[in-house]
Design goal:
The structure is a single chain. The chain is an alpha+beta fold. Helices cover 15% and strands 25% of the residues. Strands 1, 2, 3, 4, 7, 10, 12 and 14 form an eight-stranded antiparallel sheet that branches. Strand 2 and strand 3 form a beta hairpin. Helix 2 packs antiparallel against helix 3. The longest helix is centred in the N-terminal third of the chain and has 13 residues. It starts with 9 loop residues before the first helix and ends with a strand. The structure holds 2-oxoglutaric acid (AKG).
Length: 268
């Protein structure tokens, strides 16, 4: 395990609590080469469940793929041996942290597919407040193609209706428990978006509404998102396939996630 880091301050933790998002500069810079090796392998060997999006009129594709850490040793090394757990515990104020899953987003040059505004939590088989996603771009990212997060939206009392990105239809057949996405662009929300360098990470709560503009630039964009859960997070049966979907997870509402699938990577 790496030593305790001091790349971020109490102010970052306060900002995370208030806004549901914070940028941490340079915290993973020593891991970029390792993760790039993993991503290069991943590009050539996507999983059978990888999704490919394409926008008419644009030449590039956008590939996304979930839950590959057990077959890509570089991802596993990062998850188990970096400061991911320590930082997650600090941001979520948790006594222990479990690894939930990874998500790879590979946007070819001029791929033209945007990531619509959404919350991640409604797609997941969990509930709770002590959560964190680390959006970790592997190359420098201009602000215009970086993640954008609507500050404070993690505090909504109800979840935003999730949709399938390909057709904008409701993700679940029964969607009555959800509320409509507010008008983020023209609402009273402060949009947090930063240009980034390799090693910087945007950390955000599973409930924070976020999205990303299309990569219309002439360079590729590779991002790894690592998702962690803290003390109050529990299994939630959505009575439908989730994304990612954990087939045969065999858990009941209110249970902590099983540790053989979702390892505890940090404990105090
Ligand atoms: O990079 C993107 O296009 C969006 C990433 C995202 O939605 C996430 O990491 O949860």
């Amino acid at each position: 395990m790496e030593k305790m880091i001091n790349y971020f301050s109490d102010t970052d933790i306060e900002n995370y609590k208030r806004d549901g998002v914070v940028i941490l500069r340079g915290v993973f810079k020593d891991w970029i080469k390792v993760l790039e090796r993993g991503a290069n392998f991943h590009n050539k060997n996507p999983s059978a469940s990888a999704l490919v999006h394409k926008q008419d009129g644009f030449r590039g594709k956008f590939l996304e793929d979930f839950c590959n850490w057990r077959r890509i040793p570089e991802y596993e090394d990062f998850i188990l041996n970096s400061n991911l757990g320590t930082i997650s515990a600090a941001l979520t104020q948790s006594k222990s942290v479990q690894f939930f899953h990874d998500h790879y987003l590979f946007k070819e040059a001029e791929s033209g597919v945007e990531t619509p505004w959404h919350q991640d939590m409604p797609y997941y088989c969990v509930e709770g407040d002590q959560t964190v996603s680390f959006w970790l771009p592997l190359e420098s990212r201009e602000k215009s193609v970086s993640l954008k997060c609507a500050a404070g939206t993690h505090k909504f009392s109800k979840e935003i209706r999730p949709t399938s990105w390909s057709n904008n239809k409701s993700f679940y057949e029964n969607d009555t428990a959800f509320i409509d996405l507010p008008d983020i662009e023209n609402g009273d929300f402060a949009i947090k978006q930063w240009s980034t360098k390799p090693g910087d990470v945007v950390a955000f709560n599973f409930k924070t509404i976020h999205g990303a503009n299309a990569n219309i630039l002439s360079s590729i964009s590779r991002t790894l998102s690592f998702r962690l859960i803290g003390d109050d997070v529990r299994y939630r049966d959505r009575k439908a396939r989730t994304s990612p979907n954990f087939e045969s997870i065999n858990q009941n509402n209110g249970e902590r996630l099983r540790e053989d699938w979702f390892p505890v990577i940090w404990t105090n």
